[in-house]
Automatic annotation (TrEMBL):
Catalytic reaction equation(s): N(6)-[(R)-lipoyl]-L-lysyl-[protein] + 2-oxoglutarate + H(+) = N(6)-[(R)-S(8)-succinyldihydrolipoyl]-L-lysyl-[protein] + CO2
This protein's name: 2-oxoglutarate dehydrogenase complex component E1
Stated family: Belongs to the alpha-ketoglutarate dehydrogenase family.
Species the sequence originates in: Oryctolagus cuniculus
Gene Ontology CC terms: mitochondrion; nucleus; oxoglutarate dehydrogenase complex
Swiss-Prot/TrEMBL cofactor(s): thiamine diphosphate; Mg(2+)
Gene, per the UniProt record: OGDH
Alphabetical keyword list: Acetylation, Calcium, Glycolysis, Isopeptide bond, Magnesium, Metal-binding, Mitochondrion, Nucleus, Oxidoreductase, Phosphoprotein, Thiamine pyrophosphate, Transit peptide, Ubl conjugation
Location in the cell: Mitochondrion; Nucleus
Length: 1003
């Protein structure tokens, strides 16, 4: 046993505190005390309990305590407030203290002491149910916590002060009705509030009202009371939680399920948070959680039909839906039901997640924000989120920090998340002391001033109490809060895993540990709250439910992943989940609409608003473009957004500096130059009854923010949600969201998502960073087969291709095509993620303009922009057909003009790289029978599009001709850091592209 426990034991003797054993509800421990165990004898010996019980102020409560404990009350509830002290007697005692200076000093000392407990009491709370570990990784007792009488000296006090009465400061509630207490009683009450089974960490919060609120919740004497009804409900919930795991273990002993054994209290804990939140008006809870206990949460919190869970264990069942599916402990769920405790409707959604721990955190936040947004819940009173974490992952994964930093930002806040940590004090095989540098796994939450409630999970009532307080905190302050369930993991990491290899002593202790259900049932039986037959009846009732569901699960013939959908889109699909059509209307707009949007985009639509002179010039240039019936990149985006808003589509554009635009081209938020923080978003002044436009500069995060926007886009198909990277290459810090959610999301979870990624890309001599959005990676993850030519005669070939793909990858060379692809994203009858490599220099390139004519009704997004110059007029004479995508097109046309090769070389742009436009490209190739084919790109050969395009082009032409390469050599870095080398490389690739003999030697 650690020094700490020894120290605490001594303290408990001096202050007559109950000695807490690891097995906190083991009534034998308590009886032993009463029966005159050596410890108790020592108590008598040191201070003489009898003698100082008699006639001393404030110690009656200890008699009550021991009496109640003896009668079977659990430690947390045995304590009751002492009888009120008469004011006269207190005053008399106070007056009897002669030395005023000493009096003042002592009062100040007592104030410090109270504050010390409030700040550091949690370090000595009895948090580990096993009694062998320190939840804060430190066995020492802080110097200012009174673990023995000699520590009173720290405050200039001594044993003789223990019975002096001190006025209590307004920053404590330990007095209850009393405003003064003897020091001994003050310490005892502080011990009761801060050093038992609950460790409250909150004094870092820099808001007095919030601190007072928490102090009141934990310090007020007798505050933790439960009715018998509540105790019975708690027991019944523990029965379900425990017996569910036991049932799975019995039926499928060799299957991984990441059981909850050792933290069964999680189920009643979550239910308490939900009950309390429902009572406070919440009707939609969105949850995210890792593997541990997930099936149990689905069964007993979300209330997924048990047979649906059980049939996931049947390896012979085939999946009925499209997609490749996912393992059972990753699937999501959506369920609407009546909350039995509050009798109110409640919708619960558990978001599907990958193995990647904590990756779902921002996704849950984003979905919650969206659900709040769509139901007008501006303060988070109706919709809330609960996030569950493992201790190792919570401390180790950076995304946790990124997500916390979204929690209070106006465009990202969900007005408070309740975080619950299943702190089993181990991560797979790694001990906490090797897994984190912070005392607690929860310290990351301190950055946002979230209170943290650590609680010993073997004290179910203490757990319920902190969960109630957490839910109340959220509904009072609308800020994040953390419940740290300090527990243990009864089995290995999964049920097949041997934990004794690495944690032998811990697991020896665990083998001895009585399950919490058994302990709590014994306690309630001892208290007379339930009797043994009632308890047994509760168990057999639930076992029967499981058995019956198991029998029904045998009737299931196929698995429906659709049953595990976390975000249904009612009305968007047909009843059997199909798109309502397989076509896409024209994405063009009438001249009037284009002109109107253009005019608003080039004006300041509010009175007395002074914009910057430079911006006036930009808007003036926009106005001229509109007069000339032309758009540049920024205006094209405006046209797409503005028109969709008119059609009732909400638009949300988020990312770093998106309001102005990294390249200062967008200017969607105007700033009054004379009035601080006065802004205007012209896009919201376009139409009466338009949908709202949200444009928000994000925190400097990619992983967190992209995850958030993905979650936002999950909530509704009738919104265009875009995330823009500052530069395309920065998306790789969000790679997990791309790899785990965006790319395979539909295949794993039958959940569509229409998120748009805007990734600035292009080799502009800016060095290895800021150049490449890594198109090769996105293209490599496309699910189309490079070697199989699809059926080009298929009706609506282009739309079917889109329907079958996992995401759409485009690189538009004109603003008009950018406009069309954004609108198509919403006009399609289904949703797919859209990856757009967006330009930098083209934002201002004089040739990168589109006439209104190409945006009028009847026009469409062009997947391929064929050659339209002289070469197209006399195709037979064309010697080379160059394919390219994006900005290099402008370099190629300039070079071709300079070389006078307009008749010999045709240049065709592939605007939609994936799904690959086999049909249109076949036509292009057939049009130029005498041309050799070459792919030209500015990216290095092992990067960019070449590896994706080449085999597909070869398949298109049945491998009849080679496809040559004109571009940079392979390289490790995306671009050179040397401007001159950049230009030399560019010239070299242009030389190759237009040297008609370049590939002769290879033929
Ligand atoms: C990002 C990530 N890295 C590694 C893993 C592999 N892994 C799965 S569970 C686990 C331990 C998690 O420990 P903890 O968060 O404490 O949860 P517990 O399993 O103890 O409930 C690890 C390392 C993972 N799933 N995700
Ligand atoms: Mg753990």
């Amino acid at each position: 046993m650690s020094f700490y426990l020894k120290g605490r034991q001594k303290l408990r003797q001096i202050f007559c505190l109950p000695v807490r054993f690891p097995d906190v509800h083991n009534s034998q421990s308590w009886t032993r005390l009463e029966a005159g165990s050596p410890e108790l004898h020592l108590v008598s010996h040191v201070d003489g309990r009898d003698s100082y019980t008699r006639g001393r102020i404030g110690v009656e409560s200890w008699d009550i305590f021991f009496r109640n404990t003896n009668a079977g009350a659990p430690p947390g509830t045995a304590y009751q407030s002492p009888l009120p002290l008469s004011r006269a007697s207190l005053a008399a005692v106070a007056q009897a203290q002669p030395n005023v200076d000493k009096l003042v000093e002592d009062h100040l000392a007592v104030q410090s002491l109270i504050r010390a407990y409030q700040i550091r009491g949690h370090h000595v709370a009895q948090l580990d149910p096993l009694g062998i570990l320190d939840a804060d990784l430190d066995s020492s007792v802080p110097a200012d916590i009174i673990s023995s009488t000699d520590k009173l000296g720290f405050y200039g006090l001594d044993e003789s002060d223990l019975d002096k009465v001190f006025h209590l400061p307004t920053t404590t509630f330990i007095g209850g009705q009393e405003s003064a207490l003897p020091l001994r009683e003050i310490i005892r009450r502080l011990e009761m509030a801060y050093c038992q089974h609950i460790g409250v960490e909150f004094m870092f919060i820099n808001d007095l009202e919030q601190c007072q609120w928490i102090r009141q919740k934990f310090e007020t004497p007798g505050v933790m009371q439960f009715t018998n009804e509540e105790k019975r409900t708690l027991l019944a919930r523990l029965v379900r939680s425990t017996r569910f795991e036991e049932f799975l273990q019995r039926k499928w002993s060799s299957e991984k399920r990441f059981g909850l054994e050792g933290c069964e209290v999680l189920i009643p804990a979550l239910k308490t948070i939900i009950d309390k939140s429902s009572e406070n008006g919440v009707d939609y809870v969105i949850m995210g959680m890792p593997h541990r206990g997930r099936l149990n949460v689905l069964a007993n919190v979300i209330r997924k039909e048990l047979e649906q869970i059980f049939c996931q264990f049947d390896s012979k069942l085939e999946a009925a839906d499209e997609g490749s599916g996912d393992v059972k402990y990753h699937l999501g769920m959506y369920h609407r039901r009546i909350n039995r405790v509050t009798d109110r409707n409640i919708t619960l959604s558990l978001v599907a997640n990958p193995s990647h721990l904590e990756a779902a955190d921002p996704v849950v936040m984003g979905k919650t924000k969206a659900e709040q947004f769509y139901c007008g819940d501006t303060e988070g009173k109706k919709v809330m989120s609960i996030l569950l974490h493992g201790d190792a992952a919570f401390a180790g994964q950076g995304i946790v920090y990124e997500t916390f930093h979204l929690s209070d930002l106006p465009s990202y806040t969900t007005h408070g998340t309740v975080h619950v940590v299943v702190n089993n004090q181990i991560g797979f095989t790694t001990d906490p002391r090797m897994a984190r540098s912070s005392p607690y796994p929860t310290d990351v939450a301190r950055v946002v001033n979230a209170p943290i409630f650590h609680v010993n999970s073997d004290d179910p009532e203490a757990v319920m109490y902190v969960c109630k307080v957490a839910a109340e905190w959220r509904s009072t302050f609308h800020k994040d809060v953390v419940v740290d369930l300090v527990c243990y993991r009864r089995n290995g990491h999964n049920e097949m895993d041997e934990p004794m290899f690495t944690q032998p002593l811990m697991y020896k202790q665990i083998r001895k540990q009585k399950p919490v259900l058994q302990k709590y049932a014994e306690l309630l039986v001892a208290q007379g709250v339930v009797n043994q037959p009632e308890y047994e009846e509760e168990i057999s009732k639930y076992d029967k439910i499981c058995e019956e569901a198991f029998a029904r699960s045998k009737d299931e013939k196929i698995l429906h992943i659709k049953h595990w959908l976390d975000s249904p889109w009612p009305g968007f699909f047909t009843l059997d989940g199909q798109p309502r059509s397989m076509s896409c209307p024209s994405t063009g707009l009438t001249e009037d609409v284009l002109t109107h949007i253009g005019n608003v985009a080039s004006s300041v639509p509010v009175e007395n608003f002074t914009i910057h002179g430079g911006l006036s010039r930009i808007l003036k240039t926009r106005g001229e473009l509109v007069k000339n019936r032309t758009v540049d990149w920024a205006l094209a985006e405006y046209m797409a957004f503005g028109s969709l808003l008119k059609e009732g589509i909400h638009i949300r554009l988020s990312g770093q500096d998106v309001e102005r635009g990294t390249f200062s081209h967008r200017h969607h938020v105007l700033h009054d130059q004379n009035v601080d923080k006065r802004t205007c978003i012209p896009m919201n002044h376009l139409w009466p009854n338009q949908a709202p436009y949200t444009v928000c500069n994000s925190s400097l995060s990619e992983y967190g923010v992209l995850g958030f926007e993905l979650g936002f886009a999950m909530a509704s198909p009738n919104a265009l949600v875009l995330w823009e990277a500052q530069f395309g290459d920065f998306h790789n810090t969000a790679q997990c969201i791309i790899d785990q959610f965006i790319c395979p999301g539909q295949a794993k979870w039958v959940r569509q998502n229409g998120i748009v990624l805007l990734l600035p890309h292009g080799m502009e001599g800016m060095g290895p960073e800021h150049s490449s959005a890594r198109p090769e990676r996105f293209l490599q993850m496309c699910n189309d087969d490079p070697d199989v030519l699809p059926d080009l005669q298929q009706a609506n070939f282009d739309i079917s291709q889109l329907y079958d793909c996992n995401w759409v990858v485009v690189n538009c060379s004109t603003p008009g095509n950018f406009f069309h692809v954004l609108r198509r994203q919403i006009l399609l009858p289904f949703r797919k993620p859209l990856i757009i490599f967006t330009p930098k220099s083209l934002l201002r390139h004089p040739e990168a303009r589109t006439s209104f004519d190409e945006m009028l009704p009847g026009t469409h997004f062009q997947r391929v922009i064929p050659e339209s110059g002289p070469a197209a007029q006399a195709p037979a004479g064309v010697k080379r057909l160059l394919f390219c995508t994006g900005k290099v097109y402008y370099d190629l046309t300039r070079e071709r003009a300079a070389r006078g090769m307009a008749e010999q070389v045709a240049i065709t742009r592939i605007e939609q790289l994936s799904p690959f436009p086999f049909d249109l490209l076949l036509k292009e190739v057939q049009k130029y029978p005498n041309a050799e084919l070459a792919w030209c790109q500015e990216e290095h050969k092992n990067q960019g599009y070449y590896d994706y395009v080449k085999p597909r082009l070869r398949t298109t032409i049945d491998r009849a001709k080679p496809v040559w390469y004109a571009g940079r050599d392979p390289a490790a870095a995306p671009a050179t850091g040397n401007k001159k080398t950049h230009l030399t490389e560019l010239q070299r690739l242009l030389d190759t592209a237009f040297d008609l003999d370049a590939f002769k030697n290879f033929s």
